[in-house]
Design a protein that fits this description.
This protein has 9 helices and 3 strands. The chain is mainly α. A 3-stranded mixed β-sheet has the order 1-2-3.
Length: 319
């Protein structure tokens, strides 16, 4: 085995020459902003939760009581999100070589599952209210719901810009949006009860809102599970990644290719590339890094370079 071949075999070379951390630092900036805004939303939500609970009990409105219960889960969910954002910044250790980034995804999963349970409980309560209608004080219900809507709009506005950069913040954002839907539903039910006296409007609208919450929360759970299972991100085609590497001059085969999400906004790729000329492995590595960054937004790239004479081609994978 000559020296070039040895260098090429070592070409596992997690070569950082072209590994740009700017995108990861940018994601950290968004997480810091998200954490500050989550703290503000936590105070707002906790304060209004008590108002809505009292209003729901006095007016006997399931929509308000359900939304107050949902806001209680929001308080816990937002607190968990804040903790996760802080905890995820802890440095990597020998035992946790990737650090604690996945803690954010675990928090998002817990938030999503909490929303699923809440939606199912609301559906059950709505069913009971439809079977056995109860009197509802529409005017009080309407007043509290209007204030709740304004609070939720303010909270959603604060979190909107950060929700696209962190699945964890997005989980908290979905909680707030679900609360907003609950407030809209309570307003609609209050208006129907005031003008028609038809009290089943309260549980029926609550059930509709619960179904909407169930749909959005299930997507959050599914995305969280995909990341935890290290699935290929939905916006990336693994065949396109393989083709982008295989088209580089000197690359004869691509195998053992993996692309996954470490945490929100942080994509990683690893794979093996067989080359024909061992002396060009640095150029090949550089080209792979550049293509992964420019075409797919992947900055954390680990490539094993193998020499054709040492690793006979089992197959040529091109697209």
């Amino acid at each position: 085995m000559n020296q070039s071949a040895n260098e090429t075999r070592a070409g596992h070379s997690h070569d950082h020459a072209g590994h740009d951390h700017a995108g990861h630092d940018h994601a950290h900036d968004h997480r810091d902003l998200g954490r500050r805004r989550l703290s503000i939303v936590l105070v707002i939500t906790a304060g209004f939760m008590m108002v809505e609970l009292v209003g729901g009990l006095i007016s006997n409105s399931l929509a308000l009581i359900a939304d107050a219960g949902h806001m209680l889960s929001d308080v816990a969910a937002i607190a968990l999100s804040i903790f996760a954002l802080w905890f995820a910044r802890r440095p990597a250790t020998e035992q946790k070589s990737y650090g604690y980034h996945r803690f954010e995804i675990l928090a998002a999963f817990v938030n999503g599952m909490t929303l699923v349970v809440i939606a199912l409980l609301i559906l059950w309560q709505a069913y009971q209210r439809i079977v056995s209608p109860q009197p509802v004080e529409g005017s009080l219900m309407l007043g509290v719901a209007v204030v709740g809507l304004m609070v939720n709009i303010a909270a959603a506005f604060l979190l909107h810009s950060s929700a696209g950069h962190s699945l964890n913040v997005r989980g908290a954002y979905l909680h707030v949006l679900s609360d907003m839907l609950g407030s809209v539903g309570a307003i609609a039910a209050g208006l129907v009860i005031i003008f028609t006296g038809w009290t089943p409007a309260d549980p029926i609208i609550s059930a509709i809102v619960a179904l909407l919450i169930l749909a959005s929360s299930w997507r959050l759970v599914r995305e969280s599970v995909d990341i935890l299972l290290e699935a290929v991100p939905s916006h990336i085609d693994l065949g396109d990644v393989r083709g982008a590497i295989a088209d580089i001059a000197g690359v004869e085969e691509v195998h053992d290719l993996h692309v996954w999400t470490l945490t929100s906004g942080y994509l990683a790729m690893s794979g093996h590339a067989v080359i024909t000329d061992a002396t060009h492995y640095k150029e090949v590595l550089r080209s792979i890094h550049e293509r992964m960054h420019e075409r797919f937004g992947i900055d954390h790239v680990t490539v094993q370079i193998e020499h054709q004479t040492l690793y006979p081609l089992r197959r040529v994978e091109r697209t």
